[in-house]
Design a protein that fits this description.
single chain; 2 helices; 91% helix; rod-shaped; coiled coil
């Protein structure tokens, strides 16, 4: 039974030693911030492309309607 406690103590000691360096170091968020900036810029580009696509679809629909109305006007 005492041997089990010694093994357990050794395991906890090793865990503590592996975690200790994290307690002293401050985290660096620069890489995370760069990734967020990149993601925001890509989302913005996507929104602009989607808006351009919608504009083109509206213009094509408007041109199609005008062609139909002109051809109908010429037929009568």
């Amino acid at each position: 039974m005492i041997e089990n406690f010694r093994i357990l103590r050794q395991e906890f000691y090793e865990k503590m030693k592996s975690i200790e360096p994290w307690l002293d170091n401050t985290p660096s968020f620069s890489e995370l911030q760069e990734n967020r900036k990149l993601l925001r810029s890509l989302k913005s580009k996507l929104r602009h492309l989607q808006a351009d696509k919608l504009d083109l679809e509206e213009v094509r629909g408007f041109i199609f309607i005008n062609k139909c109305s002109i051809s109908c006007f010429l037929c009568t």
